[in-house]
Amino acid sequence: MTPSIPGRVLVVGASRGIGLELVRQYLEQGWEVHATTRTPDQPGQLAELAGDLQLHAFDVRDGAQLALLVRSVAALDVVIHNAGVGSGTPRAEMMAVNADAPIRTIEALLEAGAISPGGKVVLVTSQLGARRGRAGGLGDYGDSKAALNDEFRRRAPGWAARGLIAIVLHPGWVRTDMGGRAAPLRVEESVAGIRELVAGLTEADHGRFWTWEGREHSW
């Protein structure tokens, strides 16, 4: 396993599932963790975690909260944008949360100088957003992730020029509230793989689509 030197990480969308487990594992490794939730006054399981944890109120559709967030963080080594919504969400909201918000958040952090040179950015996407090999439509959820992937690829060269190492990531089909009980992958296993992948990212990996196992995914 690639060693991970403790640093400063921001996890966007941390109240449950993959985000909550990312916070837990990074704290266990001694990182300073900044975590966003829509209800920091009701932190739920985040309140049970020990370590250097700072919570931030952030609904990813709220521009005022985004402005406050970028003023509240600095010298970030890793940013993982995990916030998202699944099936049953109106299409317009799904596109706003899954496709638009991750890009807007990273751009705001860059403009504020909140990400360290050489900082690593991970946007959580899905294999359902990959167009290659599909004969039919992607569905609203797949469409939102495909839109995220498309915009990420458009922005990637500029982000590299600004010193980022950025990727989009498929976390696997994970046993969470969104993934459902039938999902084959435990959240702990997915997150351990994500952390190992992030720790080993280099400039050569920038702008690409990866899975939690460290495999490159087709677009």
Please characterize this protein's 3D structure.
The structure is a single chain. With 219 residues, the protein is α/β, with parallel strands linked by helices. It has a single domain, classed as Rossmann fold, CATH 3.40.50.720. 37% of the residues lie in helices and 19% in strands. It contains five helices and seven strands, in the order E-H-E-E-H-E-H-E-H-E-H-E. A seven-stranded parallel β-sheet has the order 3-2-1-4-5-6-7, sandwiched between helices. Strand 6, helix 5 and strand 7 form a beta-alpha-beta unit. Helix 1 packs across helix 5 and helix 3 runs parallel beside helix 4. It is globular, with a radius of gyration of 16 Å. The model has no long low-confidence stretch (mean pLDDT 93).
List keywords for this structure.
Rossmann fold; alpha/beta; 219 residues; seven-stranded parallel β-sheet
In short:
This protein has about 220 residues and is of the alpha/beta class. It has 5 helices and 7 strands.
